[in-house]
Amino acid sequence: MTTFYGTALATRLMLGTALYPSPAVLAGAFRTSGASVATVSLRREGGALAGGGRAGDDFWRLIRELGVHVLPNTAGCHTIKEAVTTAQMAREVFQTPWIKLEIIGNAETLQPDPFALPEAARLLTEDGFQVFPYTTEDLILAEHLLEAGCEVLMPWGAPIGTGLGLTNPYGLRTLRARFPDIPMVVDAGIGLPSHAAQAMEMGFDAILLNTAVAKAGDPAQMALAFARAVEAGLLASAADPMEPRDMAAPSTPVIGKAFLE
Amino acid sequence: MNGAATEVTATTLSALLSELGLAEAGPVATALNETFVPAPAREGTALNPGDRVEVLSPRQGG
Lengths: 261, 62
Description:
Chain A is an alpha/beta fold. Chain A has helices at residues 23-33, 55-66, 80-94, 116-126, 139-147, 169-178, 193-201, 211-214, 219-238, and strands at residues 13-16, 37-44, 69-72, 98-101, 130-135, 154-155, 185-187, 206-209.
């Protein structure tokens, strides 16, 4: 059975918690979809400097009430130092060794920094973290991340927030084939349930997305659509899909057909 | 404090959280000069002029 650092997930859908029109809509998306993991982040809390109140408290209460696994991220970090410090802060607040390691290499494309990522992953692994690295489909980078101690990989489908789907299916298929036993989550760039199903049919183990659900006209219904697509893809992958072929092949038996000489 | 020049009377990290009303209720995490300071170490962490303090709490993320 596929596990993520020893944890088996009830469903293979992971949802982000950002960009929803309201906390109630966020909660609705989780309930309808049965998503098993919620990604969260840490942001500045000003207290009296920000007019009092605690912006993070209500959100954290809501997430705990969902009863899902929590995957904190290092979103927006551009250096190893920033990412490591953010991860350490997240572990204390969220009480989990899981960390979605995000080191952005370019502010426009939000591409992962392939040079900083393995070093940060190594430092975090040595510090006891269970690292989910947001990475590309690059094979050599994947090797370096595994050498750094990662036991899960999270290749992108497309850049964050684009909804373009799997822009390099060949690269993703190759990555899946090269490391058949490593749990892999396709993270980012998923725009439609069909993209999620496609990735699962390829043999990926889970899907992590945010914008496609949060920005849908009906987030709860879209979350349900994604849940079913992920489930369909998982079933299909386990059912050993047929190989495509160029030439037609009749499915109805030819033998016994009338009017043949 | 959180990227803005701030005048405070607190001389330790834990006193700063109290001064800002952040010592109670939900969790926050702290860093001093880009280095994580675990909660148990806040009381013994002195603040000096020019120190950069970050106080973070749970928020939405993708």
